[in-house]
Write a structure and sequence with these properties.
Blueprint (H helix, E strand, L loop, with lengths): L11 H6 L5 H12 L2 H19 L7 H10 L12 H51 L4 E6 L6 E6 L4 E5 L10 E9 L6 E7 L4 E5 L5 E9 L12 E4 L2
Helix pairs in contact: 3-4, 3-5
Length: 239
């Protein structure tokens, strides 16, 4: 390998991938990459990482591990020519900025993966509740319907007071909304909040001692409301 390269040319690879070098530096790095397949692969890895950051797409599995492996590979022998201090400082700052961008892209992938884990966890909980509801001893059931009778939600009541509400018939809401379940007792017609069902409810389990009156589901802001803000989406008598 030739010793004609500046000592800090490796620091410029991330900056080169960002297209933040001057013409003299670009020509020098182009020449360097023609003689150095490892450095070329490193630049391509930076560009790939940046492309996923700009597009918002999910990076492919193994991208970040591959970048780390390439960075661990030994660089070729370099000539220790002195380079002006201001330019070296600027290059290092830009190289650090490039690394931060790559890490930000990796962080986006981690967030996406965590959301997927959370989603799968919620799916598992819903599936477990559905299995429990299927095996429950149902002493009674209630039908909660909309005003037109087109939408119907079934509530199963166990002898011990556990209530299973099948909410998968409810239309999905925006992420900043939630369905909220209420009990409206005949003796005291002030709605009592029983549970937040989420924006996309499936099977929910609620412990309910009694509700001599109506069960109602409303559409509320995420986090719920102290009292219903509008008419029920569905409602029916608790049996």
């Amino acid at each position: 390998m030739s010793d004609r390269w500046p000592a800090d040319i490796e620091e410029l690879l991330a900056v080169y991938a960002l297209d933040a070098v001057d013409e003299e530096e670009r020509a020098l790095i182009d020449d360097y990459l023609r003689d150095n397949p490892r450095a070329l692969a490193e630049v391509e890895s930076y560009r790939e990482a940046l492309s996923y950051l700009h597009s918002g797409a999910t990076a492919p599995s193994g991208l970040w591990e591959r970048i780390a492996t390439e960075l661990e590979a030994a660089p070729p022998p370099l000539r220790l020519d002195a380079i002006r201090t201001p330019r070296r400082a600027r290059r290092r700052i830009l190289a650090i900025a490039a690394a931060v961008i790559a890490l930000a892209a990796a962080g986006g992938v981690i967030v996406h993966q965590q959301r997927e884990i959370d989603r799968r966890g919620k799916d598992s909980v819903a599936a477990a509740i559905e299995r429990e509801a299927a095996q429950a001893q149902r002493s009674s059931q209630s039908f909660l319907r909309d005003s037109g009778g087109a939408l119907s939600v079934v509530a199963y009541v166990e002898p011990d007071g556990d209530l299973f509400l099948s909410g998968d018939q409810l239309p999905a809401l925006e992420r900043d909304r939630t369905y909220q379940l209420w009990c409206v007792r005949d003796a005291a017609p002030i709605p009592i909040s029983l549970a937040l069902l989420g924006a996309q409810p499936t099977m929910s389990k609620i412990h309910l001692d009694s509700c001599a009156g109506l069960l109602a589901v409303t559409n509320e802001k995420a986090g719920g409301a102290p009292q219903p803000s509008g008419d029920p989406v569905v409602a029916g008598r608790y049996v």
